[in-house]
Amino acid sequence: MEKGICVAGNAIIDILYPIECYPGKGELTTITEGISRATGGALCNVILDLAHLDPALPLSAVGRIGNDAEGDLILSEMERFPNIRTDGMIREGKTSFTAVMAESTTKQRTFFQYRGANAQLCEADFDWSKIDASLLHIGYILLLDTLDEEDAEYGTKMARLLHSAKQAGIKTSIDVVSETGDRFARLVPPALKFTDYCIINELEAQNATGIPLRDADEKLITENLPKALRSLFEMGVSTWVVIHCPEVGYGMDADGNFVELPSLRLPEGYIKGTVGAGDAFCSGVLYAAYKGQSLEDAIRLGIASAACSLSADGASDGMRTAADAMELYRSLNGK
């Protein structure tokens, strides 16, 4: 029987508030019509995206949600797909939620996060004898409090967990949450020592490596991208490093081969929401890696998957099968 992909980490309910503009401190803005609730976080977004990309792909979820209506919603969304196993989901406490403030004009998002049950996810929640997968994807580092704790031997408990997965013969993939501050330098490098696939955005790569990737005008410093990719390999990544940006996708393999593919030019009015686009890109890359495809094809599918996600308000509502995603890519790319 085919081994599949285990997706673990943050299981969140996103409460989306459309706003006219983001206010300054002490100022007021208007919440417009269209408040919505949807599943979010690395676990929910990636596993649902993968289920769309391949309805026959064996998938298993490991995470923590509360004994509440929000936890019920997360489980019901996963259980719509017969290829997702949810017996690894532990129910205790209160489900994590994020208040997402989305500007109506720019689509820029700001997040206010309540950790909830996610904070208690730990290595003991992973029963390697029951996880029948060849690849583990977990996110987000910096947003899983117990796994972000210090470990005397491995640096962090997340690093210990990834080491245990590799000892069980499972390849590993990580994602990181975008955050300012010095925690990147403490919490990300230990995990990279036991990571096979690192798929993060340019701001996360910048914070992890200390290499600037955007200038004061927010323009990409393109000549620094290969340096950042190599730096992440030097921190311990074994197979692929992929950095995704709104403008372009970059990647490098263990032999130093560099890939650069531009994002699709989307028609005016195409983008309905940006929540989950990064996770969709990640899902495309993961699926291609699982299927043994090339790094270039993986980034291409990642770009196609992100474009699917952008076509709908919810993180996974616009997702399609891998074949249909690539058909969309070709239609928008003109090739």
Automatic annotation (TrEMBL):
GO molecular function: kinase activity
Pfam family of the protein (one): PfkB
Keywords of this entry: Kinase, Transferase
InterPro entries, alphabetized: PfkB_dom, Ribokinase-like
Domain Carbohydrate kinase PfkB per the UniProt entry, residue ranges: 5-320
Superkingdom field: Bacteria
Gene Ontology CC annotation, any one: cytosol
PANTHER family according to UniProt: RIBOKINASE (PTHR10584:SF166), SUGAR KINASE (PTHR10584)
Name the UniProt record assigns to this protein: Carbohydrate kinase family protein
